[in-house]
Amino acid sequence: MRILITNDDGINAPGLAVLADIAHQIAGPDGEVWTVAPAFEQSGVAHCISYSRPMMVAELSARRFAAEGSPADCVLAGIHDVLSDTPPDLVLSGVNRGNNSAENALYSGTLGGAMEASLQGLPAIALSQYLGPRTRDLENPFEAAATHGAAIVRKILSLPGDDTDYRLFWNVNFPPVPAAEVRGQKLVAMGKRIGTSFATQAQLSPSGRRFLWIRGGDQRSPATPGCDADVNLDGYVSVTPMRADLTAHDRLSSLKDAFA
């Protein structure tokens, strides 16, 4: 198996090394793992592509490339340039430093990479490690993902394929606990944290100029019962099938008369 890996934390992020190990376990001794990841951190860029400017791609070592672009750019570069002779069989994105559960999924460059792979017709899985007080003092904060990641990926790959126009990609979030305390995995929907969201925080520079920082919300806020963030905080790995189709299918029938 030939696997392409990427992330949004950057080519030197420790989570990417964890993902490389997971990918090697999946690819097997006769497989190949190729890395095309952002040269610099690209957190929060979602499915952004560098449509209006070119990007430089540099080979750092064998099968390891850094691109001056977003995770979606990296997937495009991997498929259509680096691996243009033989496209990958699978794209893995992550392991993100921090969760991409609930509303975080909408901002996530990690998911943006997986989404682009799905739009290119390839199976894709995004993996993220929820962090918290229980992971802060671990020698490896990505311990849960490192221990359970390969098994989760194998389980997803064992499922029936999907060849719809907007094919499935997968959002996997590992809970903020040590690996030995992971209680299992649950197939769940994307949820919403209640009473929290991204916001801005003003700060003056030493020269007196005013700048705004984007500030995240409380990641331990209660979330939709039974959703991804909710089960993560209960010690479970969340597995969520997703599509790039943004249509509100639940409202199409009820709204048709208004536009007849």
Automatic annotation (TrEMBL):
<dbReference type="InterPro" id="IPR036523">
    <property type="entry name" value="SurE-like_sf"/>
</dbReference>
<keyword id="KW-0963">Cytoplasm</keyword>
<dbReference type="InterPro" id="IPR030048">
    <property type="entry name" value="SurE"/>
</dbReference>
<dbReference type="GO" id="GO:0008254">
    <property type="term" value="F:3'-nucleotidase activity"/>
</dbReference>
<dbReference type="GO" id="GO:0004309">
    <property type="term" value="F:exopolyphosphatase activity"/>
</dbReference>
<dbReference type="GO" id="GO:0005737">
    <property type="term" value="C:cytoplasm"/>
</dbReference>
<feature type="binding site">
    <location>
        <position position="9"/>
    </location>
    <ligand>
        <name>a divalent metal cation</name>
    </ligand>
</feature>
<dbReference type="GO" id="GO:0000166">
    <property type="term" value="F:nucleotide binding"/>
</dbReference>
<keyword id="KW-0547">Nucleotide-binding</keyword>
<protein>
    <recommendedName>
        <fullName>5'-nucleotidase SurE</fullName>
        <ecNumber>3.1.3.5</ecNumber>
    </recommendedName>
</protein>
<comment type="function">
    <text>Nucleotidase that shows phosphatase activity on nucleoside 5'-monophosphates.</text>
</comment>
<feature type="domain" description="Survival protein SurE-like phosphatase/nucleotidase">
    <location>
        <begin position="3"/>
        <end position="193"/>
    </location>
</feature>
<feature type="binding site">
    <location>
        <position position="96"/>
    </location>
    <ligand>
        <name>a divalent metal cation</name>
    </ligand>
</feature>
<keyword id="KW-0378">Hydrolase</keyword>
<comment type="similarity">
    <text>Belongs to the SurE nucleotidase family.</text>
</comment>
<dbReference type="GO" id="GO:0046872">
    <property type="term" value="F:metal ion binding"/>
</dbReference>
<keyword id="KW-0479">Metal-binding</keyword>
<feature type="binding site">
    <location>
        <position position="43"/>
    </location>
    <ligand>
        <name>a divalent metal cation</name>
    </ligand>
</feature>
<dbReference type="Pfam" id="PF01975">
    <property type="entry name" value="SurE"/>
</dbReference>
<feature type="binding site">
    <location>
        <position position="8"/>
    </location>
    <ligand>
        <name>a divalent metal cation</name>
    </ligand>
</feature>
<dbReference type="GO" id="GO:0008253">
    <property type="term" value="F:5'-nucleotidase activity"/>
</dbReference>
<dbReference type="InterPro" id="IPR002828">
    <property type="entry name" value="SurE-like_Pase/nucleotidase"/>
</dbReference>
